Amino acid sequence: MAFWWPLLVLALAYAICRFLFMLIPHNVPSIDVDDSDVLEDGSQMQENGFIYVPPRGRTQQADPKVQCYEPATMKYLGYFPALTPAEVEERVAHARKAQKVWAKSSFKQRRQFLRILLNYIIKHQQLICEVSSRDTGKTMVDASLGEIMTTCEKITWLLSEGERWLKPEYRSSGRSMFYKKSKVEFHPLGVIGAIVSWNYPFHNIFNPMLAAVFSGNSIVIKVSEHASWSGCFYFQIIQSALAAVGAPENLVEVITGFAETGEALVSSVDKVIFVGSPGVGKMIMRNAAETLIPVTLELGGKDAFIVCEDVDVNHVAHIAVRAALQSSGQNCAGAERFYVHREIYSSFVSEVAKIVKSVSAGPPLAGKYDMGGICLQEHSEKLESLVNDALEKGAEIFARGSFGNISEGAVDQFFLPTVIVKVNHTMKLMQEEAFGPIMPIMKFSTDEEAVMLANDSKYGLGCAVFSGSQGRAREIASQIHCGVAAINDFASNYMCQSLPFGGVKHSGFGRFAGAEGLRACCLVKSVVEDRWWPFIKTKIPKPIQYPIAENGFEFQESLVEALYGLNIWDRLRALVNVLKILKEKNHPSNVWDCLQALGNVLKILKEKNYPSNGTKRND
Questions:
Q1: What would you report as the CA-atom Rg of the chain, rounded to the nearest whole angstrom?
Q2: Contact, 89 vs 264, CB < 8 A?
Q3: Are 103 and 216 in contact (CB under 8 A)?
Q4: If you ran DSSP here, which 8-state letter would residue 75 be given?
Q5: Which residue positions are annotated as catalytic (predicted)?
Q6: Is a pLDDT exceeding 80 seen at residue 74?
Q7: Residue 194 CB neighbour total at 10 angstroms
């Protein structure tokens, strides 16, 4: 016991010191960001305070400007240029020049950049959420959950663990290279290109930017044409934080435009991260193949939400509604297919319907509404067509929410939260990604049937499984072919930023978040060096030096068995033969006889004690 006391005292002292160290605040400077253009009473709002009517029936890409408006009110916000391929290449060239400087920056400088951002985000949560709300139609609560919390969690994880995962990682060297040191190094790739979606404009910019910059890269981000107004403001926050730590100009660039702009970006960078639809993801892969650059694709999903009969129905119902209606259902990790055990099906549907009926949808900044609008023009028409297809095939609408005070010009930008029953997999609603506030609920009888239904999809991003037995929920989730699984919860994986995020099948491939996502921004380099340099160096054995000796293959054959043989006696005998061949080339006198005698002894011992299969004899 006396031996352990000093260790316990040292451990306690270390813990106290760590705690006291945590009480010392970091010296984090504040940054000033010009927000006059995004405030309600700003000059831009006074100048552009009219209702915007987007052209129907033609693509917006013919316009050299990216027009911006509030989906929930259709108020005009302004425009940004659609960059040409030449302009994109120029931005990438500037970013490449800045990256060569930033690659030499210290982790201390990079962490300070993160702290400055975190400090600004915490102090300006309302502003960031209002900008997101105006540009995408989501509520302030949805913005806080999907924009603020996720980004703060990622920054905190990088501050805590980021450097550790980017330091060299030592690996075993194996038997033949035991005298070597083996390690993996993680170097910046160069310029990362990110093409991000509109549904979470703040986080979708910060997510790839944080990983790229912390790992020593520069990044050029093409924001969605449906969220360029907010994206360009968020870019100012990043610029101010970079300037505060003395980072080179143009280390991070945000560009606006349409497909032509994105294609030019893919052709110019060293890696592409894409968040969007499978169709566009395939186009990006084709373009990336021209320059053979790595691609990470996050292409949405059709996540299954499985509810077993042994759950607390009221508890799970509230989680289910949040899983479907978060950000008006415009959530890549949102639940889109609900499978409920037949024993609790009726009570679950009734409980969900009660909650959904209480949900009101309206302009989120114009009143107290539970749900906001649909960001994309004409997307509500697609949602209506999915519902109509289901109704024609026998489904029924069980419950809907209500509309608030919506201006006449913005009616098409809203879709009521809807609960649909009597659905099956012949309906488009159960196969195509809806990306809207619809809850189709289907019965199942056995766990095997639930797994079969969940896997009957071309998507494979995530799933959520609920059961009173965690073991049962884990067993079901383990059989679902997807990249993310939540047990008795919904999408909690993404708040654990130490975990990789991504899917399979039409949900894409590659991962962001976690060590996997951070290292995906790196050139992964294997390095081998002598462990005891300069005392022990690699030397080609005489029998296989050029010109190769007559017994060169015999030497190799014995060396392989000595290193990898399954039987210790065979390995020792082979080792004797290896040494014998080596000595034969150098000292062919009495050493030969000694080694030959040792080999004979080993052979006799083996024959006496072990048969050919290596098991010991009983006689």
A1: 31
A2: yes
A3: yes
A4: B
A5: 298
A6: yes
A7: 26
3-state helix, strand, coil in the chain (%, to 5): 45, 15, 35
Do the Cβ atoms of 510 and 295 come closer than 8 Å?
A: yes
Which residues lie closer than 8 Å to 334 by C-beta, 6 or more apart?
303, 323, 324, 326, 327, 435, 491
| Bridge-based pairing state of the strands 335-341 and 303-307 | parallel
Instruction: Find where tokens 């150098």 sit.
Output: 586
Nearest to 355 by CA among 317, 392, 394: 317
Strand ranges in 473-521 using DSSP code E only, listed in sequence order: 484-487, 504-505, 508-509
* Token pair in block for residue 490: 């919904």
Instruction: Provide the pLDDT for residue 408.
Output: 76
Residue 314 CB partners (closer than 8 Å, separation 6+): 351
Q: Which helix (H) or strand (E) element contains residue 466?
A: strand 462-466
Question: Cα dihedral sign for 448, 450, 454, 457?
Answer: positive
Task: Compute how many other C-beta atoms are within 10 angstroms of the C-beta atom of residue 442.
Answer: 22
Q: What is the DSSP letter of 396?
A: E
**Overall residue count recorded for the chain in this entry:** 619
pLDDT confidence bin for 602, thresholds 50/70/90 = low
> CB–CB of 98/220 below 8 Å?
no
Set 298, 336, 351, 433: catalytic member: 298
584 is catalytic: no
Which pLDDT belongs to residue 56? Answer: 57
What pTM, to 2 d.p., does this model score?
A: 0.89
Q: How confident is the model at residue 614 (pLDDT cuts 50, 70, 90)?
A: very low
Residue 162: which residues within 8 A CB-CB, separation 6 or more? Answer: 107, 110, 111, 214, 518
CA-wise closest residue to 460 among 324, 278, 328, 194: 278
How many whole angstroms separate alpha carbon 323 and alpha carbon 328? 10
Q: Amino acid identity of 496?
A: C
Neighbouring CB atoms inside 10 A of 171's CB total 12
Q: With the C-alpha atoms ordered 376, 377, 380, 381, is the resulting torsion angle positive or negative? A: negative
